[in-house]
Amino acid sequence: MTAPALELKGVQKSFGRTPIINGVDLAIAQGERHAIIGPNGAGKSTLFNLISARFHVSSGQILLKGEEISGLEAQEINRKGLSRSFQITNIFPRLSVYENVRCSVLWSLGYRYSFWHRVSGLKDVRERAEEIVEKIGLSRRRERPAGMLSYAEQRALEIGITIAGGADVILLDEPTAGMSHSETRDAVELIRNVSQGKTLVMVEHDMGVVFGLADRISVLVYGRVLASGTPEEIRGNAAVREAYLGADAD
Amino acid sequence: MTIAAPLPGEHPTISRLTLRRVAVWSATALVMIVMPLIFNKGFALSMLSQMGIAIIFALSYNMLLGQTGLLSFGHAVYYGLGAFVSAHTLNAIGAGKFNLPVTLLPLVGGFAGLFFGIIFGYVTTRRSGTPFAMISLGIAEMVAACALMFPGFFGGEGGIATNRQVGQAWHGITYGPQIQVYYLIAGWCFVCMIAMFALTQTPLGRMANAVRDNPERAKFVGYNPTRVRYLVLCLSSFFAGIAGGLGTINYEIVTAENVGVAQSGSVLIMAFVGGVGHFFGPVLGAMLVSFLQSALSSYTQAWLLYFGLFFVVMILFAPGGIASLLAVHVPAIRAGLFARLVPGYLLAAVALAVPLMSGIALVEMIYHLEAESEAGSAFKVLWISVDPSRPTVWIVAGIAFAVGVGLFLFAVRPLKAAWQSVNAELQARGGV
């Protein structure tokens, strides 16, 4: 029996006296596409920030492939194969699209803090970066500064930066927020494509995206997991319908 | 059977880019070799030497400010300490305690700079932004205070004097004549420029830019931003130390001023005036500021005032520095539209001359009254003889200044219109 890709045990987080996450237990199997849904302020983004060590947990344990990661720094967790995107676009605005992606593959290919390699001469870096730029559909925007891209393009780049390092556990925070219908459709295709063979955890508000992509869904309400199960189970769960989905589910 | 225009592939672009770079560097080397043959007077030669040192120092500073987003108020610490250690080493060589060719002395300065970079940088780079700037200022003040507390090393008020003509002459190179010192500086300057440019093209150099843009995201692609900043600062202090070592050879004296805040401010101004957003920006800034520092100061006592005004004007109207002023013209020149801008620039330049000259006249007259209150009041402003004791001169200069400013504001309008038409045309042609 392999360890879950990601496991949370009794995770709690308070800011001052305000508890935001009240003991979350969650296990996400390897290769699973898992969506976390819940009303605004339920703590979804905070949960992501805890897993990726943007914040540190107040108590509880987080395990990545069976290994405890709570207490590590963000970059250390990233090097262990967990990568995340951000709800508010978080890119390198003055660097070109290609540079953004290239910076994101360097560590994973072992170049670390090297100041003795000429970066444009590194074949593996170039091939990997070009493959990612192609994959996120920004080949024609390759040399443009990332800060000058359209919103949807920046969101695609956000995903590109997240997957470039080859992490096998990927956290996407509202990847389709603020997108039009057609942009959302493209983004879903992109996510489906890039998450193949990987473990995907995503926070998402768009129920079409959630039910279209996710193998399992967890519902977070007031910092607790209200329910966790397959899309059918979640659809049929009375407590979830009452707390969150309301009449829209029908 | 061509299907479509090939996409801008990596390989042809790279070789063309490499070719262009080789051309640029060769031209740079050529200019450095030829310059002292054209400007061969003693004054020009020492100014060129000063420029070479300033270029290394300013480029090393821009590794922090432009490349990594670290605003340092204490970069002279590494320059100055490199210079002091070089001076002591040079004296030890002179005393026969130690043997090292003077040609390699800048390396001693470099390693001294690196040594102190490793120590101080560990403290300063824990933080970025304003805290980094404040801590760098604190370290600068601390080292400046040490300079007074430890006269044995820093030489007290007089500094450490030294003599560069030590060791055996090699093929007649004694570093006695300034021209030999110039070529030593030029050689090191060239090597350091290439090395610092090459550094921008390495994984660390690229990540420095990433950390500058968004330190948080750098963490989430596996990099520790503190480590990136620290490594860049260490490398940058190495180059600052080389500049310091060359300073020791060139001036044959190192004083506490060399580690002081004024020196740190001077390199900041060089980088900023030149333009921190382009690699070659600080090179231009270093040359211009060195020129102003030595040329302007021999013409007028008020040179610091002009220098300060110039800096303020640059910050206000060209925050990207000279480099970005040049860069904005590149698309227009490529599209062959530059000719449209020329009349506007000429008109603006002519209109600017009036307030500029009358302003200089006013400043010089005030200075003249303050400095030399004794009789014999007539003196020359530029080439015009004026007598500040006559009120008409003041009235004329004042009116000329006021009218000139108005005239200038009016005269830049055609230039603005020309720019608008050029930009519109560029956009219509599909440029960015």
Name the descriptors.
heterodimer; A: 250 residues; four-stranded antiparallel beta sheet; 24% strand; B: 432 residues; mainly alpha; two-stranded antiparallel ribbon; 17 helices; 4 strands
Q: What does this molecule look like?
A:
The complex is a heterodimer of chains A (250) and B (432). Chain A is an alpha/beta fold and 250 residues long. Helices cover 34% and strands 24% of the residues of chain A. In chain A, the strands form two sheets. Chain A has a six-stranded mixed beta sheet with strand order 6-7-8-3-9-10, sandwiched between helices. In chain A, a hairpin with a 2-residue loop joins strand 4 (59-64) and strand 5 (67-68). Chain B has 432 residues and is mainly alpha-helical. Chain B folds into two domains: 20-288, ABC transporter involved in vitamin B12 uptake, BtuC (Orthogonal Bundle); 330-428, no CATH class. Chain B is built from 17 helices and four strands. Chain B has a two-stranded antiparallel ribbon with strand order 1-2. In chain B, strand 3 and strand 4 (384-386) form a beta hairpin. The longest helix of chain B is centred in the C-terminal third of the chain and has 38 residues, at 391-428. Chain B starts with 9 loop residues before the first helix and ends with a helix. In chain B, 40% of the residues are buried. Chains A and B meet through helix 2, helix 3 and helix 5 of A and helix 8, helix 9 and helix 10 of B.
User: Are there runs of chain A of 5+ residues with pLDDT below 50, and where?
Assistant: none
Task: Please compute the radius of gyration of chain A using only Cα atoms.
Answer: 18 Å
Mean pLDDT of chain A: 93
Secondary-structure-derived class of chain B: mainly alpha
Strand residue content of chain B: under 5%
Beta-strand content of chain A: 15-25%
Backbone structural class of chain A: alpha/beta
Order of the strands making up the biggest sheet of chain A: 6-7-8-3-9-10
- How far is the N terminus from the C terminus of chain B? 31 Å
CATH topology of the largest domain in chain B: ABC transporter involved in vitamin B12 uptake, BtuC
Please describe the biggest sheet of chain B, giving its number of strands, its sense, and whether it closes into a barrel: 2 strands, antiparallel
Report the top-level CATH class of chain A: Alpha Beta
From the spread of the alpha carbons, the general shape of chain A counts as globular
CATH hierarchy: architecture of the largest domain in chain B: Orthogonal Bundle
Approximate helicity band of chain A: 25-40%
